[in-house]
Amino acid sequence: MIRQSQGGIVRAQGIGQRLKRGFLFLVLALFCVYYLAPLVVMVSTSLKSLEEIRQGTLISLPQSINFEAWAKAWTSACVGVRCDGLAPYVWNSVLMAVPAVAISTFLGALNGFALTKWRFRGADVIFALMLFGAFIPFQVVLLPMARTLGVLGLAGTVPGLILVHTVYGLAFTTLFFRNFFIGVSDGIVRAAQVDGASFFGIFFRIILPMSLPAIVVTLIWQFTQIWNDFLFGIAFTVGESNPVTVALNNVVNTSTGVKEYNVDMAAAIIAALPTLAVYVLAGSYFVRGLSAGAVKG
Amino acid sequence: MAVTGSPPRIRWRSFDRWLPQIVVSPLFAMSLFFVYGFIGWTLYISFTRSGVMPDYRLDGIGQYVRLWSTPRWHVALRNLVTFSVLFISLCLAIGILLAILLDQRIRIEGAIRTIYLYPMALSFIVTGTVWKWLLNPGLGLERVMRQAGFESFSFDWLVNSNYAIYTVVIAGVWQSSGYAMALFLAGLRSVDDQVLKAAAIDGAGPLRTYFSIVLPMMRPVFMSTVIILGHLAIKSFDLVMALTGGGPGYATDMPATFMYAFAFQRSELGVAAASAVMMLVTVVAIIVPYLYSELRGARR
Predict the structure, then answer these.
(1) Residue of A35, A147, A234 lying closest to B115 (CB–CB)
(2) ipTM score assigned to the predicted complex
(3) The whole model's pTM is what?
(4) What is d(CA B34, CA A100) in angstroms, rounded to the nearest whole number?
(5) How many domains does chain A contain in total?
(6) B198 touches chain A (CB under 8 A)
(7) How many angstroms away from the CA of B210 is the closest CA of chain A?
(8) Using an 8 Å Cβ cutoff, are B272 and A143 in contact?
(9) Would A163 be classed as within a structural domain?
(10) Which residue of B has its CA nearest to A297?
(11) Where are the alpha helices (DSSP H) in A139-183?
(12) Can you list the domains of chain B with their CATH numbers?
């Protein structure tokens, strides 16, 4: 088989090239194993009994499929002193992530629109100043935020976390939409203005419908960030209002009793499932977010 | 200019003209308060004698002196350097290698890319939990190797204070190297095909083409990847907490975990604030020149 190449660098021709090609695939496959192995071990460990874990090794497959560890992780694993499983904390994370993602995305769209399509004086400076907020190490705001939440009566609550994630997500959602709107012709806005459309009219009827891709990318990015957050969760919530990442960490690091590795792994999968599902279903949007996020990191 | 329409309509019009500013103001105010105001507060506290409670009387650089004479802070800084250097260079090496390999018109590239990149969708807490189990001294990798015939194989890095920091590197690289790959691949794709054709016509082999033509052209991608990874490294908190909890002892402490421990566990607000300011200064030194060039580049 000879592959005719159109440009590109490596040309696969002849037996030597086919050997090279084979080697190439071998290396790629080895890296697939490297990235997938932890996931496989995680799933297989979660399906084993504790006895099996003690007898076998990481790579031995479970003898029978056993969902007990999953049930335990969901309903009765101990998070600190409370033994209700991860379920209530998953619920906390949902209650936190959904409003925080929606609000920060909406405000980012509005802000990005106002800053790019109505270039009033100082818009660039305002944008640069706001963008800086996406890069600060959040340690520098932890102490004053904790006090502010206390003053607002939101300390240790899910609404408190929603506020925190909205505030610190805004810089980034604004960046996303600004990057998108810069590519949108100013003529559209001007034409609508001439037709007498108002600021909000243009925003809701013209701009929002056409920015669907940017909205999806931002929603996915924000959801992944907020669901996976640990720092704000551990700093601003206690016990009952912990998000699932904090609860998972507590399950794993509970030092009392027998270490149940299968329950730990099941709990980790439960915590990872929502973002993994989003990644599998909307991978290309996720990747676009990552490359747009290259400015954020 | 002639006035058209009734007076109320004019008033509405001028209101509408100011709407963009009116919309942006509260958001900007929020940012001023929650970002700059809070940074200011932390900065101020770092110059006071605050202990368990904030104390607003200024006290000079006492907290910074205390910070820099705390052995734990030096451990944290050493760990940050060790971690950053290894984390960044390994991610870069793997990222470039995989990007070049994937750039060879692989038919199932999409599927492979998906596999390389999925760890980025996971929380660092999940990654830490998994690697804590994989590297478990006794039941983890050690058991696998012993059963495979290497009876004396031992791997206790996770609980060995001299080596624990390297387990953080291992898990971090596993999670983030796919990201480096994606950034490099995007960079490779943006290289003009004409350049590649010219190189091929001049008789340059694939290796030569990559090392003397393509990679030098990707210097901007290289720079931004290093900055992104460095930024991740300085902020790394979750992974350390999940994998080692900063232990054994404080052997794997990093500035981020140090600050958290002093703020929320030991209640030494002044030292915590001083360490947070040090982190901010480091990030600003890296990110501001980068942002400046990025924004200027975007405007051009």
Answers:
(1) A35
(2) 0.87
(3) 0.88
(4) 16
(5) 2
(6) no
(7) 9
(8) yes
(9) yes
(10) B228
(11) 139-152, 158-182
(12) 71-299 (1.10.3720.10)
